[in-house]
Structure formats: structure tokens, C-alpha cells
Amino acid sequence: AQSVTQLGSHVSVSEGALVLLRCNYSSSVPPYLFWYVQYPNQGLQLLLKYTSAATLVKGINGFEAEFKKSETSFHLTKPSAHMSDAAEYFCAVSDREAAGNKLTFGGGTRVLVKP
Amino acid sequence: DAGITQSPRHKVTETGTPVTLRCHQTENHRYMYWYRQDPGHGLRLIHYSYGVKDTDKGEVSDGYSVSRSKTEDFLLTLESATSSQTSVYFCATGPGLAATGELFFGEGSRLTVL
Prior knowledge:
The complex is a heterodimer of chains A (115) and B (114). Chain A has 115 residues and is an all-beta fold.
């Protein structure tokens, strides 16, 4: 079974500072990996995805993530936080070989951006 | 964005009453999913469908049933709602294994069971 662990349920950063959200996964086969963002009272939007092409993936709004197979990690970063980055972020894994194309999500990390 | 609409968006009901949530998509995606979102748990899969009349259980399926009579509609039913089913429910769709696994989400339905 797949699982996803996000370290830290809440992260507070200053505007202009580095944003680093950690995600570790377990999967018996090479996975697809995703980061989604959820703004208050909205659904989830895809930030970026890893599908076995480049290990450094660039997404929307200046975010990027690096797939490290040896560490089973897919950490999300943004060099300079903006007030609009305040949201909840979810890491997710999909077993590309399993039926159903299901996503397994981590518990989420809520980001607070301080002025 | 995939056209995914959920109804109702908000509902308050009492313990023991039946509740049905509806998800409607306009993207002709093969797969549809119901997730629930609870603090600290992220999103957990309730049921999913891989075609008309084809459904399967997710990790938290107890107390829920689903139906899919048309490609575009996926219904989630709570036969007898309990307070533990107070949650935000999200519908998602996906084109299937031929794609890269990305899912598209609706806006969510907030259910409160008193």
C-alpha cells in the first residue's frame, strides 16, 4: 500500500523567505507524485507533478519540487514567499500500475505568510 | 479546468437521515472519485468509479454507497448519517491510466450532521 507523510501540519514563513514543504512517500513501484494547493473554501488545484521525466519539476506560481528516489522524497520549494501563497498544500502519490488511478494524499501542510 | 460541479455545496442534517451528494462532470472522464477531507487526515478515498455502473471501495467506505448511471454523474449516499460523517466531501475526475494520473477536483460539499 502506498502512503504519504508530510512533515509539519503548519508552517509559518515571512514574506520573501524560502518556503520548504516536506513530503516523503512509500510505494513499491515508481510512482507519479503531485503537489496540490487548496485556498480557503475552494477545491484542490494542481501545482506540479512528477511523471518520471525530469526529477526537478517546475510548477505554477514559482513553485518547484525535486524527486529523490534514494530518499523517497518529493519536497516542495519556493525561493520567495508571497502573501498569496497562504493556503494548504497536499502531497499525493499515484501507483501508475494499479487499477483505479487513485491518489493517496498526505495530511496536508497549512502555510501562513507573515508580512 | 475540468467542469466539475457538486451539489449541494452546504448541507446540515440530523443523525439518522439519508443524504445524497451529487457530482456532475462535463469532461467525459472515465474515472470519478469521492474523497472526504478532515483536519490532519488530508483527503481519504471513499469510493471510486471506473465506468458506468462500475464502482469500487476506497479506504473509508463504511457507511457510504455510490452509484453511477451515466458517465457524467456520480452520486454519494449516506444511508443513515452519523456525526462522524461530518466532513467536507470532494468529487474528483480523471481520464484514466493512459494519462499521468492527475485528478481534477470540484469545489467541495460541506456536510454537517447534528
